[in-house]
Amino acid sequence: MLNIPEKISEVYNRIVADFKTYNKNAQPAVKNSWIGSILVALAGRIFDIYKKLNFILKQAFIDTASGEYLKRWGSYVNIYQKQATKSSGNFIFTGNEGSLVSIGTQVIANDITYTTNQSIELVKNEITTTNYTQELDLVTITFENNHNLGTGMTIKINNIDCVVEVLDANTIQTSIQDTLSGSITIEYVSNIVSCIPSEYGKSTNLVSGETGKTQTVISGVNINCYTDYKGFTGGQDIESEENLKARIIYRYQNPVTNFNNAAIVTFVRSLSEVGDVKVYDITPAVGQVTIYYLLEDNKIPDAGHVQLVTSSIDTDLRPANTDMSDIFIYAGIPVTINPVITNLQPNTTAMKEAVSNSITEYFSNMKIGTNFYRNDLIEVIKSSIDMETGLGVTSFTLNPSIVDITVTNGQFIKLGNITI
After folding, report:
1. Where do the domains of the chain lie?
2. Tens digits of per-residue pLDDT, 185-211?
3. Which of 22, 119, 311, 361 is 20 to 30 A from residue 226's alpha carbon, by CA?
4. For the domain 254-331, what is the CATH code?
5. 3-class secondary structure per residue, the chain
């Protein structure tokens, strides 16, 4: 390994020592001396060369490369930095039958403006069905086709106003006091339209059930509008160098062939917002493959994002000889752990915060398919440091219900509530 000096003084001292070796009577260290000035200037220029050499050495290895050099390493294996993207999704408008929502209508949600892509007219939907179940006052209704409803919308069931919770494209739940029997009639006036946000990034994503407000009053149209069951997905910030480097290193370590595990992981991780990916081949049967994945920061993807990944695999990765019915894509399955810590010493606010931060960081790095061990969590707690005093944890008790967990296909360990 090259011995690269960290300070300019190291270079200067070496030059002075070498100079005096050949000219023992010289006094280069004398302030403002002619020869001393020359050696100081020379040391500065040589130190600049050392710094450039150190930078070049770092770019020669993927592990330490950065900036444009890291991107160049990725380009050799077709791995490119994910650029910031806009989300996509639909808003559902409600109001009076026949009312118009014109193209370019602006909706505000989470302080971001979304614009409709086309004009729509609100229509009355009237459905008669027996495809429902009722348990006490909770009613679950399954529609034959997409219901185009959003969580929080009000519909009429047998002329009774009911607020709905959307479960998927065809299923809703609502609460109703009456006992239903036989056919029920469902009525609502609405229409759905795709919208695009004005900005890029994760902040443009909206979970199912989020509401927006029209920027201006529209005759016959309610000011509140609703996301459909998929929400708005696909928005991401520009990828961090840390994530890009991890994908590039994975690609170099795992050669890709046609639709092998490495090819699937590499492709899915290149999609918007995707974090950890786990592939189980020959699952559930020979000739089939099951893919579980999480979003960045171990967030669980919703149905809309899973559909986006499924469509991308079908369009851009699936070989012609593989049917989509043999490819199964799911969100990771959480196994939640709720740590309860008692008898913490020192029992200060800062120490509690330090322990909480350590635990949170530990669980944020848990991957799909990684087992959990109680002793690992104990060591994480022990290593916590109170940054105000510099003191570490001296003693504590971790609730005995926290035990080793062996995860199964698609499961990952997720942090629940921390109690200290």
Report:
1. 8-60, 89-227, 254-331, 335-415
2. 999 999 999 999 999 999 999 988 899
3. 311
4. 3.30.300.30
5. CCCCCCCHHHHHHHHHHHHHHHCCCCCCCCCCCHHHHHHHHHHHHHHHHHHHHHHHHHHCCCCCCCHHHHHHHHHCCCCCCCCCECCEEEEEEEECCCCEECCCCEEEECCEEEEECCCEECEEEEEEECCEEEECCEEEEECCCCCCCCCCCEEEECCEEEEEEECCCCEEEEECCCCCCCCEEEEEEEEEEEEEECCCCHHHCECCCCEEEECCCECCECCEEEECCCCEECCECCCCHHHHHHHHHHHHHCCCCCCCHHHHHHHHHCCCCEEEEEEEECCCCCCCEEEEEEEHHHCCCCHHHHHHHHHHHHHHCCCCCCCHHHEEEEECEEEEECCEEEEEECCCHHHHHHHHHHHHHHHHCCCCCCCECHHHHHHHHHCCECCCCCCECCEEEECCCCCCECCCCCEEEEECCCEC
